Amino acid sequence: MDLYFASRDLARAEAYAAEFDGEDAFGSYESAAVDPRIDALYICTPHDLHLEHARLAAAAKRHILLEKPIARNVGEARSIIEAANEAGVKLMVAENYRFLAPVQEAKRVIDSGALGQVRLIQVQEEYPFDPGSWRNDRERNGGGAFIDGGIHKASVLAYLAGRPGTRSMPFRCRRESPVGTPRTAWW
What is the per-residue DSSP string for 12-71? Predict the structure, then answer.
């Protein structure tokens, strides 16, 4: 697979291309999107740019791999899905947990029925989450620690057990992050 790198800063894109054996680099997202050598775009920009960049990719008829979360809110997510559908391109959220070997094995065991009816899946992660830069800006991030890191857990739970119906769930947090959202949460 040929890799190309784009950034608003051409020198940065060129540095990534050199480090990861890329074919070429672009000094703008727009130039990458319309280049005929490009089939798909992996969008890994801050959350507040996902809608703009997904629309750019869809308008150029490029398939879209979009870093999680899909958007800051449901309205933006629906607009991204609509843009991809209207353009006839594939859209996938880059939610990597479901591709991890332990998660794949858990899914296989659950789907085999060997455990019977699964009533509880507990996910625990012990990793210091201390976001910086745009991740601390509620307007840019869209939801604090949950949308930025907790979304992995919500995604893997939906993957393993299916999507639940509407439920009320208790929620508590141990301490607050700089943007006023939980760092450690149980749900």
Answer: HHHHHHHHTT-SEEESSHHHHHH-TT--EEEE-S-GGGHHHHHHHHHHTT-EEEEESSS-
Cβ atoms within 10 A of the Cβ of 20, count? 9
For the domain bounded by 4-94, which CATH number is listed?
3.40.50.720
pTM of the predicted model over 0.85: no
The SS3 of residue 5 is strand
The residues of the chain that CATH labels 3.40.50.720 are: 4-94
Q: Is 119 strand, coil or helix?
A: coil
Tokens of 106: 């858990």
Q: Is 93 helix (H, G, I), strand (E, B) or coil?
A: strand
CB 56 within 8 A of CB 81: no
Q: Each residue of 148-187: pLDDT tens digit?
A: 777 888 888 889 988 776 555 555 555 444 555 444 333 3
